[in-house]
Structure prediction request, 355 residues.
Amino acid sequence: MSAPCIAVIEGEGAAPEAMRPTVELLSNLAPDINWSFPPVGKTGTEKYGSVFPPEAREMIDEADATFFGATSGPSGVALAYLRWGRQTFANVRPARWLPGCATPLAHPEGTDFVIVRENLEDLYVGCEGDLEQLEALEMMSLTARKPVAKMGPGKFALKVITREESERIVRFSFDLACRRKQAGKRGRVTCSSKYNMLPQTDGLFRQVAEEIAAEYPDIEFETYIVDDFARRMVAEPQALDVVVLPNLYGDILSDLAAGLIGGLGLAPSGCYGEDFAYFESVHGAAPDIEGRNVINPTATILSGVMMLEYLGRFEEAAHVDQAVTQVYRRGRNLTPDQGGQASTAEFCKAVSRFL
Prediction:
């Protein structure tokens, strides 16, 4: 197996404080990995006069995967390229409770599910405007029973659900459920949307899921209205395996899922396209704790685990995952968000000792 190349974009705020020791940890475990550092954000501006110069894009395209830190600034341009430019349509966000994590649940044991969020369309097509722009369309509100443009001064947003993207994300979810079932998981896909109020858009998403479910008779399938699903996710998270959601619901409910297991500092993610993937923690850049060396690196490390799996480095991925599990189980080197007093660097050193 040839040595992979990983492009690293550290991000802004406190994110680099989690990314740098994580890269060091992974480098020590797999010294053959080649790391590149595209000049993005401040570095790109200083060196090339652009927050995302062509040189950075070329380095990303030549790498086997991209490891991205959270952004609250100019690195967001690169993130947009990773997402829409490279068509990473599947945002995969695991929610697995580790013994020792500070969960609000009374009985978190057995919580281990994955939210698969459609990553390219829905309200995120970014099409908004003044209500008066809709006047020529003569669109009627079925609930207000008047022309939408006459509802008063205001704004609209366009929600787009296509059959093609729905099919792609749902099939991805069922394939993931198959792999998880082979690994001893439940083998179930749960689909959720607001199809009762949005029968054309969310209804299409549900319809596509039902059609594809018929092609996977060995995988359980269920569907719920999204508000009912939110309740179920809190009340019985152990019943979930793979959850597939349209973009907006997936964005919101994956943060809720992180809250169930102990917080955003524990939540990794991977965004997958047909021939490209990038990996990042779900949390933001946390500028309020920048420079303090207390950001929880767990989400970044576990995103690295997902990246290693994507690259076919399953043995190394398992070692890192088990090491993180051991640190939480022992509870001696946890960061402040988990009730401990360890710094980011101290947590990473503790993980390294178990590798």
Observations:
- The two ends are 22 Å apart (CA to CA).
- The mean pLDDT is 96.
- The longest strand covers residues 90-96.
- Residues 8 and 26 are 12 Å apart (CA to CA).
